[in-house]
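Ticket #4471: structure export looks truncated?
Reporter: QA, pipeline team
Priority: medium

Steps to reproduce: submit the single chain below to the structure queue and open the exported record.
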Amino acid sequence: MNRLTSVFLLGGAVLLTSYINAPAAPTPAPTPVSSAEMAAINAMLPLVEAVVQETERLKSRLTPVPAEPVSARNPFGFGNRTRPTPSPPTAADGIEATAVVEPAPAIAWPTLVALLSGKAEAPALSAVLALGDTVEILTTGAIFGGFQVRDITGISVELVHVASSSITRLALR
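Actual output as written to the record:
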């Protein structure tokens, strides 16, 4: 049985390669041109030459397109205006100076990766949080990267940003 299988595989491979390498179809023989057809082609030669001469004549009549004039306009300048120099404000103007308060920078909150439950007498929930390249497993009350875990439920974690006392709830997706 083993010999028969190898014979069939070899025969199939030979047939496949001969099918792939065979030409698609034989090339057709060139059709002979009759003397009547050659006479018709030769009769059109003067017409072809006349058309070529006419196109050359029309090309010579074309005038060269003038180059675009260089524009002296400056779209970014609006004339020679002088700028008035601002005078310092005086108390008589009634304008009071106010302090500019910069907004606090945005807080980069950690990402909730998973919630874990322990197998003990009182199952405790733990949260897996990721901040940048760091991943930590935390329980309630733990502090991680400036964030304190306030509460862990079955589907979310409540975090407090220690520096700003901002609170957020991270939920599983």
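Status: closed, not a bug. The export was complete when the record was re-opened. Leaving a note from the reviewer for reference: The mean pLDDT is 84.
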